[in-house]
Amino acid sequence: GFAYDGDADRCIAVDENGKVIDGDLILYICGKYLMEQGRLEGNTIVTTVMSNLGLYKACDKIGMKYEQTAVGDKYVYEYMAKNGCRIGGEQSGHIIFSKYASTGDGILTSLKMMEVMLAKKLPMSKLAEPLKIYPQVLENVRVTDKKAAQNDPAVQEAVKAVAEALGDTGRILVRESGTEPLVRVMVEAPDHDTCQRYVSQVVEVIKNKGYAV
Questions:
Q1: How far is the C-alpha of 94 from the C-alpha of 76, rounded, in Å?
Q2: Which of 99, 161, 117 has the alpha carbon at shortest distance from 15?
Q3: How many Å apart are CA 30 and CA 20, to the nearest integer?
Q4: DSSP 8-state code for residue 184
Q5: Contact 16, 37 (CB under 8 A)
Q6: Which of 89, 126, 133, 159 has the maximum number of C-beta atoms within 10 A of its C-beta?
Q7: How far is CA 183 from CA 19, 146, 161, 178, 201, in A?
Q8: CB neighbourhood size of 56 (10 A)
Q9: pLDDT tens, residue order, the chain (213 aa)
């Protein structure tokens, strides 16, 4: 099944078992197929900093390269246009196939997914199987000053401590919202409890330093 947002530039799929196939999985499935066909320029897909760690680990296993941009399909397309990349997108289902369009197109994304399923004679669940999505916890903290909160030495130290504790088993990302007075704290790790614990640690420091509203 395929679902679209209001203007149908985003597409999220559901496999035959009812599992959600988000933009990261779609990038993996379509990118891998293009690479196998010799049609993936530079064997590279374009993602954003919010893409799941599981996507990168799955790409590493098959030798598919990836680039990261800031969040927003315009940044993804800018990178693609500059470097001749064929496919890029966001976890939210904004997928760009640069041969056909310069923006996300949900109908096109559906057709490309069906093309892979028909060509490989595999159900969607099998195509998505190699990619294990890491649990992800994201907390938004409303603050008085986004830049000051992010650049505070105590906050940076807390983020560094989490990054070191996770090593290559997860990651932490702290970034400011482009449109609201928010600092977003996101952690990916092998289990949900670990994510929540480390997110809370960093959020606590932001609050203790007096930035939270």
A1: 10
A2: 117
A3: 16
A4: E
A5: no
A6: 89
A7: 30, 6, 18, 10, 14
A8: 19
A9: 999 999 999 999 999 999 999 999 999 999 999 999 999 999 999 999 999 999 999 999 999 999 999 989 999 999 999 999 999 999 999 999 999 999 999 999 999 999 999 999 999 999 999 999 999 999 999 999 999 999 999 999 999 999 999 999 999 999 998 889 999 999 999 999 999 999 999 999 999 999 998
